[in-house]
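Researcher: Re-running this chain for the archive, since the previous output was lost when a drive failed. Same request as before.
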Amino acid sequence: MKTRAAIILIAFLYLTSCEKVVYVDLNTTDPKLVVEGNLSDQPGPYIISLTHSVNYYDPDIFPAVSGAHLVISDNAGNSETLTEVSPGKYQTNTLQGVTGRTYSLKISADGKQFDASSTMPSHVPIDSVNFQLNNNGNSYRVICKFKDPEGVQNFYKLQLSSNDTAGLDTTDVRILADGFADGQELSITYRTHLLPGDSVNVKLECIDNSIYTFYRTLADDEGGIRSFVSAPPANPVTNVSNGGFGYFSAYSVAIVSTVVH
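Model: Regenerated structure tokens:
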């Protein structure tokens, strides 16, 4: 079964999960709803994308799901119906993500009801972004450091971007859990081909356990995170109910923009 998402590589430290993995027939199955939903503590609007899966050997054309009804609510009593702004793209209007709140997504599509929920963790700042010369003597590696809050189980997604598209593998996304590193400073190194003067954006997302589990089980599939594009028999654990695929993530984010020097 093929589904749609970013192609990224995963590194992980720790996992605890009692979720089930969904198994599907690669050859011929009914189309499944695929959800890609992100909601953060940054200003909106936020986008929820809906598509249909296709059979494993079909072309990589994922039909948009139009005409669905989506509502996001939180445990503080706020609720908003999303607007379809383009085929399969549903957008919030006034909703603002707040750390500590649990967000619920309800989707009516294909004559079915799908539900997902995610709790937005507290914000963790990036302490520093430094550069170290590679052995080749002209390009640099990027070192990001941040302090894990003590006594709280935390999960992270870390990704870099740059104006130098040839110098940085933007598919290299790190998924981490604090595990035995609770309360310690974490130092994450990216080997890149960035040069002096290149811009670098470092994005640290604090994600909840269900989203960490999604990425972790995605990494366990053959082909790693690539399997969400061309999934093998074992699909990643999802927090979408009723046989849906994909994820709905509420996360806090820290971003540092700098220049290689």
